Amino acid sequence: MKPPAAQGRVPPQSALLRPEREDLRVAALAALAVALHVLEAALPSPVPGMKPGLANVVTLLALVRFGWRTAAWVAALRVLVSGLVLGTFLSPTFLLSAGGAAAALGALGLAARCPGRGFSPLGLGLVAAMAHMGGQLLVAWALFVPHPAVALLAAPLMTAAAAFGTLSGIIAWRILAQEEATEQA
Amino acid sequence: MRLRPTPADLLAFAAAAALLAALHLHAWGGGGPVVTARVETPAGTRLLPLDRAGTYRVPGALGESVLEVRDGAVRFVDSPCRAKVCVRSGWARTSGDLVACLPNGVVVTLTGPDGEYDAINF
Amino acid sequence: MGLRERLRRMGVANALVNAGGDLRVLGRHGERPWRIGIRAPRGGGILAALDAVDGEAVFTSGDYERYFTWQGRRYHHILDPRTGRPARGLVSVTVVHDDGSEADAYATALFVAGPRGWAALAARLGLRQVLVVDERGRLQATPDMARRLRIVARPAPPLEVVELPAAGARTRGEGE
């Protein structure tokens, strides 16, 4: 994926405000993630809290291609901007989303440090999704419903997270494979 | 990039499978409904889940009462009262049961999974 | 637009709205009515329980949430306009009514009216369901309230059922 404005020269206005390559990259990825996030929010969900979480694919791509810092920026911006766009900023929905994203980033940070061959996008997708859902459930339990029933909700939600996490891992892998092929051609 | 799971991936999937198995066992299995003991003391109220065995020391008006939780039931093992009515009451195990050490101000009430009240008015 | 209408429009038919202890219920809790516990004003858990049905508001005014103690006397936040001092005699008044804001105001008014005046005032305001607790922990309730109330505090405090005087009748001993 090419940051859209990367090939044109940025006019030399103020050195302070000139976006760097990394900024443009983060902005482009975050925009994509926001679009996916908002699109998903518009879809009806059979069970509250069950969403495919396709925006996490963007976080995965950012992590694999550009490292954890970029991934963290993209995820943070995605949560913030989506909250503003959807009007959920600082609402329970937003806090759940932020808690999930923070947990996923934490887990990805650890996974990226894994020695040896490390994790493939597949494993990263699984780890991120499970951590995301786990973080959300913890936030829900700590802030909103400190009721043992939250643990019962964990079984179906974590199962869905595992499935969707694997799916987003596969999607991320397909995209990365295609990019590689394009670059080699 | 070929999709070849790494050892770390396999480990993650195994861990996830174990976690999910445990969660589902907890959610669907586990036999009867979970009863919780509400322990009221002069210092406040705390909840003890009865699905985990353990011994608890709770402060009361005279001193410490000792509660034992085992096999989904709770009882007073000791209390700093004179008559020891609480200890002699034995085990409480069904929702709605109540054992108490009144001199020490410790009241143990069992509540079902449904919860006794939907809301408390004050 | 009222709370009920708003929730209806959002497709919510069954709800319990808890405004920090003061409640209103809509519809039911699944197959059963909403179960409400009324906290004991001087600590020690739940005083009484009642099942609330669609549209009912349960409001309590008490001297135990906001107060300070000075030289052994409790100074709370419900002031008697006739004296400018905290109203004495009752420690809590619970009202069940079909209008939340009215219930809130009426509970406070009955609190100020005190142990001898509350029943007359309740009759005049058209309230049918009132529970009061006095400074010695004794309960008084209107017949409609007493019928649905389940005293759960142990040992059970004494409960006196107070017939409401006919509405409009002038009252003696109102206030203190």
Helix-and-strand structural type of chain C: alpha+beta
Share of residues in strands of chain B: 35-45%
Number of continuous helical runs of chain B: 2
Shape of chain C: globular
Oligomer: heterotrimer
Strand element count of chain C = 14
What's the domain count of chain C? 1
Please give a structural write-up:
The complex is a heterotrimer of chains A (185), B (122) and C (176). Chain A is globular and about 55 Å long. Chain A has six helices and no strands. Chain A is 72% helix and 0% strand. Chain A has one domain: Arp2/3 complex 21 kDa subunit ARPC3, CATH 1.10.1760. Chain A is mainly alpha-helical and 185 residues long. Chain B is of the alpha+beta class and 122 residues long. Chain B has a domain at 36-111: N-utilization substance G protein NusG, insert domain (mini-chromosome maintenance (MCM) complex, domain 2, Sandwich). Chain B contains two helices and eight strands; from the N terminus they run αβββββαβββ. Chain B has helices at residues 7-28, 85-89; strands at residues 36-41, 44-49, 54-59, 64-70, 73-78, 98-101, 106-111, 119-121. In chain B, the strands form two sheets. Chain B has a four-stranded antiparallel β-sheet with strand order 2-1-7-6. In chain B, strands 3-4-5 form a three-stranded antiparallel β-sheet. In chain B, a hairpin with a 2-residue loop joins strand 4 and strand 5 (73-78). Chain B starts with 6 loop residues before the first helix and ends with a strand. Chain C has one domain (3-158): ApbE-like domains (T-fold, Roll). Chain C has three helices and 14 strands. Chain C has a seven-stranded mixed β-sheet with strand order 1-2-5-10-11-12-14. The N and C termini of chain C lie far apart (39 Å). The relative contact order of chain C is 0.14. The model of chain C is unreliable at 171-176 (pLDDT under 50). Chains in contact: A-B, B-C. The A-B interface holds A 111, 114, 116-120, 122-123, 126-127, 130, 148, 151-152, 154-156, 158-159, 162, 170, 173, 176-177, 180 and B 1-9, 12-13, 16, 19-20, 23-24, 26-28, 34, 36, 49, 113. Strand 8 (119-121) of chain B pairs parallel with strand 3 of chain C.
